[in-house]
Amino acid sequence: MSQNPPILRPDLARPLVPDTRRPGQPTIGMVSLGCPKALVDSERILTRLRAEGYAISPDYQGADAVIVNTCGFLDSARAESLDAIGEALSANGRVIVTGCLGAEPEYITGAHPKVLAVTGPHQYEAVLDAVHGAVPPAPDPFIDLLPASGIRLTPRHFSYLKISEGCNHACRFCIIPDMRGRLVSRPAHAVVREAEKLVAAGVKELLVISQDTSAYGVDLRHATDRGHRAHITDLARDLGSLGAWARLHYVYPYPHVRDLIPLMAEGLVLPYLDIPFQHAHPDTLLRMARPAAAAKTLDEIAAWRATCPDLTLRSTFIVGYPGETEAEFQTLLDWLDEAQLDRVGCFRYENVKGARSNDLPDHVPEEVKEERWQRFMEKAQAISEAKLAAKVGRRLEVIVDEVDEDGATCRTKADAPEIDGNLFIDEGFEGLAPGDIVTVEVDEAGEYDLWGRLAG
């Protein structure tokens, strides 16, 4: 039984639609790299193409052209994107590039001059124009039917719900605002309408994403339109009323975040916060151009947990940031000890083309970054192991992601797809199907995963 089902990986996603191509129908393939926000862009592009009469191919050979939706955030992601473009060119030959790396067309065409077109992030019309030029549409309105929920690249039972584009922060290590622009929030009524359609189509879990979820609606001055206010607290309440799990990602710890916690305690939205703290030492945070009140954050965390004891906190951190001293890194370890975060990811700092952090003095040697990363992950793993061990004997609600001959792969409310752990059921699972929500009794725990059996 796979502990990380490939079907859940956004960077390996393929359209989960039946192959119903009619003779002569123009066909497009899609490779979607990077984060869930890019995955939503891919879904929108494919939905538009499908509405115009294009079929969607699950492989290179069956496509008249291939769209590669790229990631350009880190140098390693840029290299992966170039590799994917090269693979598509080799296997198909007709490639259109879009996404974050598309903001640098000369960089792409310098490596792959044979690509048909390059467009930037969320430039849907430009992508469609490029597809029309490469493979003219030939719709048949009597045959080409589009599902009401559109084309999705995730399993049927969960879906990403993007509520805004861009970001107003100016973190020195990040170039997202340069690639995707400043914050642009979707109207709340449009988000809720999309969520309603998804739930009606069978989605059991809505994964709310943006670059800065807690800033949602700031650019709209939190306006109310058609009965829905553009504010994250109001939106969370609206989404929580639809009967599906609602999970919030990329939430900055603004003061108003505390207003979300009672909604979690009530069970309206999942008791899960994905907050990118990045570091804990005030000097490091200042060099990152991020809020530098780590001690105050500990007080906030304590208050959140007092209101909602089952709250799961996930975060990501950067070690080896320019100028990070051993004392600053030790502060981060001590902070992690006190914060006792449930789910933690960590990145070794790397330069990103165009980021202001590249010009900072005192870059940390690679071997020191690696040693600090190892120490950080050892501590995070020990915390995770202890927290999961405390769940043995408890009854938890889980959602089933995959069932094979070995068992069922599930997730608890504390686990987001792909980035967190799993709960495995290896007995009495035969009647389960993806999307089922069932109660299990936990009988074993590992470092990141749980095992359990269906509760009687």
TrEMBL record:
Q: What is its EC number?
A: 2.8.4.4
Q: Which GO terms describe its molecular function?
A: 4 iron, 4 sulfur cluster binding; aspartic acid methylthiotransferase activity; metal ion binding; protein methylthiotransferase activity
Q: Which GO cellular component does the record give, naming just one?
A: ribosome
Q: Which residues bind [4Fe-4S] cluster 2?
A: 167, 171, 174
Q: Which residues are noted in the entry as [4Fe-4S] cluster 1-binding?
A: 35, 71, 100
What PANTHER family does the database record attribute to this sequence? RIBOSOMAL PROTEIN S12 METHYLTHIOTRANSFERASE RIMO, RIBOSOMAL PROTEIN US12 METHYLTHIOTRANSFERASE RIMO
* Name used for this protein in its record: Ribosomal protein uS12 methylthiotransferase RimO
Q: Which organism is it from?
A: Neotabrizicola shimadae
Tell me what gene encodes this. rimO
